[in-house]
């Protein structure tokens, strides 16, 4: 059995962020058993810790000036059935994609559209990870967390998490709560969601008329592998910008001028495709030294080897400036920035 807590000083972070940029953590604790948190975080040197998950939604523009906490417990347990759903608890350090595959192995559905998203289970509720028409928050039953400042355990139900598009309670008060485990309510009956452009088509092309949840996961994995660079091969943090949400009237004016602009939603607000806006400004495949934009997807910034976090951030700012100048739309980064502010 591994030790419940491992403390590292001057820990190199290049291998702990999916951009692969170099940085150093003055102090980092790996915590296997969350029961060790109250005592560890009561130590003055661990005041105001910052949680490091899989590092797949993070841009280190400098060294962190706070202690880092990595939760390494990966246990997944079935809690029981409740009507049509089965409750499953996963510890924060579990790898998200492995957890999705495990839930499918158990015959449970819901998370298939979220296959192959990098990162950990504990990070999933923070930005309410989403892909191909599904968001993780829809299947979250409760989040378990420790609050260092008040020395308290919390159990937040789905409503308390205040999930939105790439948004949650946890995103608004970063690091107030240290998420230790997430309970999911997963249906046993499949209800495939194939509406997202390209997904239904990929299954039809494979001759699959009534897909199982596993068929859907396989199709999603195929699409992601075609469109998104593998961080193990080319450093990246997935989409670098959120898709901007703007008032419907402004979206209509933009659509009148640019009929090809993908625009989603109804009511008073519309979501625009950030990838399209960036592509239209000519950034796809662009390189500034080792900092660049993926040639396959305009929303994905890439590190071609030796880019620093500051170089990637400078490129992101130039991209956002050009989109603002041409379309009057503000882009907001999706990954967490450390060592700089947007
Ligand atoms: N497009 C371009 N140029 C490009 C790529 C896309 O013009 O280089 C246009 C196309 O018209 C395409 C549209 O943008 O139809 C949307 O592209 P895509 O389906 O790839 O989706 P996205 O809006 O760019 C979002 C998520 C992804 C998620 C996909 C699939 C955000 C910020 N990103 O991307 O999430 O995988 O949808 O659901 O919401 C991530 O968060 O890291 C991430 C990869």
Question: What this model shows, in words?
Answer:
By secondary structure, the chain is of the alpha+beta class. The protein folds into three domains: 5-71, Uridine Diphospho-n-acetylenolpyruvylglucosamine Reductase, domain 2 (2-Layer Sandwich); 76-187, Uridine Diphospho-n-acetylenolpyruvylglucosamine Reductase, domain 3, CATH 3.30.465; 235-338, Uridine Diphospho-n-acetylenolpyruvylglucosamine Reductase, domain 1. Helix content is 24%, strand content 27%. The protein is built from nine helices and 20 strands. It has helices spanning 37-41, 96-105, 158-161, 169-172, 199-205, 213-227, 248-257, 274-280, 309-327; strands spanning 5-12, 24-31, 50-51, 58-60, 68-71, 76-82, 85-91, 130-131, 134-135, 140-147, 152-157, 178-187, 235-239, 245-247, 263-264, 269-272, 287-288, 291-293, 300-303, 336-338. The strands form six sheets. Strands 6-7-12-10-11 form a five-stranded antiparallel sheet. Strands 1-2-5-3 form a four-stranded mixed sheet, with no helix packed on it. A hairpin with a 6-residue loop joins strand 18 and strand 19 (300-303). 42% of the residues are buried. The model has no long low-confidence stretch (mean pLDDT 97). Uridine-diphosphate-2(N-acetylglucosaminyl) butyric acid binds next to strand 13 and helix 8. Uridine-diphosphate-2(N-acetylglucosaminyl) butyric acid (EPU) is lined by residues 131-132, 196-197, 227-228, 238-239, 242-243, 262, 273, 275-276, 279, 284, 297-299, 334.
């Amino acid at each position: 059995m591994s030790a419940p807590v491992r403390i590292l000083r001057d820990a190199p972070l290049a291998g702990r962020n999916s951009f692969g940029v170099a940085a150093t953590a003055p102090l980092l604790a790996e915590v296997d058993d969350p029961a060790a948190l109250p005592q560890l975080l009561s130590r003055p040197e661990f005041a105001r810790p910052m949680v490091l998950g899989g590092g797949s939604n993070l841009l280190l523009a400098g060294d962190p000036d706070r202690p880092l906490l990595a939760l390494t417990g990966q246990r997944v347990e079935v809690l029981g059935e409740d009507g049509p759903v089965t409750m499953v608890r996963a510890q924060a350090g579990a790898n998200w994609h492995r957890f999705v595959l495990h839930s499918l192995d158990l015959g449970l559905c819901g998370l298939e559209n979220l296959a192959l998203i990098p990162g950990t289970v504990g990070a999933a509720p923070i930005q309410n990870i989403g892909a191909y028409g599904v968001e993780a928050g829809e299947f979250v039953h409760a989040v378990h967390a420790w609050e260092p400042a008040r020395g308290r355990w919390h159990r937040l139900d789905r409503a308390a998490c205040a999930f939105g598009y790439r948004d949650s309670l946890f995103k608004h008060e970063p690091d107030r709560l240290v998420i230790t485990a997430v309970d999911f309510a997963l249906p046993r009956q499949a209800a495939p969601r194939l509406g997202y452009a390209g997904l239904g088509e990929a299954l039809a092309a494979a001759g699959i008329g009534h897909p199982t949840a596993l068929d859907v996961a396989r199709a999603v994995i195929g699409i992601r592998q075609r469109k998104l660079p593998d961080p193990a091969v080319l450093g990246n943090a997935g989409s670098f910008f959120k898709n901007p949400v703007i008032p419907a009237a402004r979206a209509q004016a933009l659509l009148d001028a640019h009929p090809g602009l993908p625009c989603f939603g109804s009511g008073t607000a519309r979501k625009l495709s950030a990838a399209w806006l960036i592509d239209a400004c000519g950034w796809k495949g662009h390189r500034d030294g080792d900092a660049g934009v993926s040639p396959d997807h305009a929303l994905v910034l890439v590190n071609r080897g030796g880019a620093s976090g500051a170089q990637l951030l400078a490129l992101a700012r130039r991209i956002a400036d050009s989109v603002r100048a041409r379309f009057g739309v503000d882009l907001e980064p999706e990954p967490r920035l450390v060592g700089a502010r947007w």
